[in-house]
Structure formats: C-alpha cells, structure tokens
C-alpha cells in the first residue's frame, strides 16, 4: 500500500537535522547528519513504522495536509512517500532466474573484467526505478 505523510525537518544546534512526523508523533521520528541522510532516514523510519502498524492491524491516522500542520519558520515540510508492498517484496529478497540478451562485446568485456552480471543488472534496475 502507498502512503504519504509530511515530515518536519529542523536543523539542530549540533548541525544534525531532526525529522518528525506530526501525524504519527511520538512513534515515528529520526535525524540525519546531512539533508540527504535525513531524507533517507525519514523514509526508513516511516517505512518501518508503517510496516509494524500494518502487521498489528492497527488503524493509521489520516495524513494532514501541509497547510494544516503546525510548525515554525525554521522547519521544512517535506512529503515522504512509502510503498509497504514494495518494502515487503524487498524484505523477501527472493532471487529469480532471468534470461536476457546483451551484445556479445559487452558479454566479452564483462567476463574479462570479472563483472557480476546479476549484481550489475540489479543495481541498474534499482537506479532506473529509483529504489533505495
């Protein structure tokens, strides 16, 4: 299932970035050392929380609109989207055999360089699909 909740990002005095989810407080919160790290941690925290809530069959609060969130001017409101169906599939991490066709010269060069074709294809697909 896809969910979207708004997170509040606030830079702290120690330069860490605090991340809170007002609709899910105090259960989902985290921090990061950079904005990129904070975004990653926010996604991870929200995903973990939502998976547990689904497993326990608990009801989730409706996500607030960004306009209705109470915040101060030092906080950024950032939407964080999580797909728990995709997260569960990723957790299962079952590999499947796939037959594909590639140019011979790429196959030859890959073999010479001892390229792991499965890992390379997996990495390329994750990048192409914007999967963390």
UniProtKB/TrEMBL annotation:
Name of a matching Pfam family: HicB_lk_antitox
All residue ranges annotated as the HicB-like antitoxin of toxin-antitoxin system domain in the record: 6-100
Protein name per the record: HicB-like antitoxin of toxin-antitoxin system domain-containing protein
Cross-referenced SUPFAM superfamilies: TTHA1013/TTHA0281-like (SSF143100)
């Amino acid at each position: 299932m896809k969910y979207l909740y708004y997170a509040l990002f606030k830079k702290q005095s120690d330069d860490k970035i605090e991340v809170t989810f007002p609709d899910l407080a105090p259960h989902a919160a985290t921090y990061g050392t950079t904005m990129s790290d904070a975004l990653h941690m926010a996604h991870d925290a929200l995903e973990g929380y939502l998976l547990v809530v689904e497993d326990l069959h608990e009801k989730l609060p409706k996500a607030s609109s960004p306009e209705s969130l109470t915040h101060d001017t030092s906080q950024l409101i950032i939407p964080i989207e999580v797909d728990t169906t995709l997260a569960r599939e990723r957790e299962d991490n079952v590999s499947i055999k796939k037959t594909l066709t590639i140019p011979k010269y790429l196959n030859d060069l890959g073999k010479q360089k001892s390229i792991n074709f499965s890992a390379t294809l997996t990495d390329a697909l994750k990048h192409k699909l914007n999967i963390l």
